[in-house]
Amino acid sequence: MKTIGSRMLRGLSLIAAIALLGACAATGPRYEPAAQAPAGKALVYIYRPGKFMGGGVVFDVHAGSKADNRAIVELQSGGYFPYYADPGELELWAKTESTSSVTVDVKAGDTAYVRGSVGVGFFVGRPSLEMVDRSTGEREVRECKLLQPAKK
Fold it and tell me: pLDDT tens-digit profile of 48-75?
């Protein structure tokens, strides 16, 4: 009898954990290619493949210097955001208990892909941002859902 009760308790705990983590996953429309970048702009897809590990951790991605503190999107597991950037070097960064940044050098009309992920942290997951090649980015972003821009 104890075995059935403990199995049931573990099963219910697992279901509750999955439900809580699922609540943090992206819920927007499935991936659709963004409109071509406006004249004089570059398109940068910022995305985060859906993963169970770290799925409950959400972090803001910022564009520009850390002094600007301009959040452009709250990056959720399984989400993507098309960002239209001015040509030149673009610094994207994210912070929880640690900071990760990546600098992307884009030209007008270019499309670039920046993948976000979460690593193990002491108190909360640590964000990681990295530029990926076009074929990897195109393949992975197709599995994501559209995110809304960060509230200003």
Answer: 998 655 456 788 899 987 777 789 999 9
pTM of the model: 0.78
From the options 2.60.40.1120, 1.10.1740.10, 3.40.50.720, 3.40.50.300, give the CATH code of 2-146.
Answer: 2.60.40.1120
Closest CA relative to residue 73, chosen from 87, 65, 88, 84: 84
Which one is predicted more confidently, 124 or 47? 47
Residue with tokens 């090649």: 133
Q: Characterize the bridge pairing of strands 111-119 and 99-106.
A: unpaired
Answer for the pair 113, 106: CB distance below 8 angstroms, yes or no. no
